């Protein structure tokens, strides 16, 4: 849905200006950047995004984000990382890559037989 914010008196706050049903079911993270909408789906390959026209919500195609350190490996990458933008020229993904996993066992957790 494209909903008015009321900012700068250009739209009416809360008014729905455009609504379009999505063609693919999946959890999606949306971001606006440089006049386009970008969608990243959790089920898609890491780094894949779909671009949409902001006026019509029609798909403009797909793109792959280039971040070899992040997308070059499939192990231990959080697939639900936030997808953000500065609104102008940059897209950001905040993520954490687990290098090693050590589980600390506290003395009171050890069962004595």
Walk me through this protein's architecture.
The structure is a single chain. By secondary structure, the chain is mainly beta. It has a domain at 23-99. Helix content is 4%, strand content 31%. It has 1 helix and 8 strands, in the order ββββββαββ. It has a 4-stranded antiparallel β-sheet with strand order 3-4-5-6, with no helix packed on it. A hairpin with a 2-residue loop joins β3 (28-33) and β4. It starts with a strand and ends in a 20-residue tail after the last strand. The mean pLDDT is 77.
Mean pLDDT over the full residue set: 77
Helix content: under 10%
Please tell me how large the radius of gyration is.
20 Å
Low-pLDDT stretches are: none
How is the secondary structure organized here?
Blueprint: E1 2-3, E2 16-18, E3 28-33, E4 36-41, E5 48-53, E6 59-64, H1 68-71, E7 83-85, E8 91-93
Antiparallel strand pairs: 1-2, 3-4, 4-5, 5-6, 7-8
Task: Offer a quick outline of the entry.
The protein is 4% helix and 31% strand. The mean pLDDT is 77. With 113 residues, the chain is mainly beta.
Question: Could you name the key traits of this structure?
Answer:
two-stranded antiparallel ribbon; about 110 residues; elongated; mainly beta; four-stranded antiparallel sheet
């Amino acid at each position: 849905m494209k909903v008015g914010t009321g900012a700068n008196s250009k739209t009416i706050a809360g008014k729905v200006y455009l609504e379009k049903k999505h063609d693919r079911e999946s959890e999606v993270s949306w971001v606006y950047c440089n006049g386009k909408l970008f969608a990243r789906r959790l089920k898609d390959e890491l780094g894949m995004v779909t671009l949409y026209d902001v006026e019509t919500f029609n798909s403009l195609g797909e793109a792959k984000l280039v971040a070899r350190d992040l997308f070059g490996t499939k192990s231990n990458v959080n697939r639900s990382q936030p997808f953000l933008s500065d609104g102008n020229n940059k897209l950001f993904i905040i993520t954490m890559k687990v290098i090693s996993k050590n589980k600390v066992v506290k003395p009171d957790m050890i069962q004595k037989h």
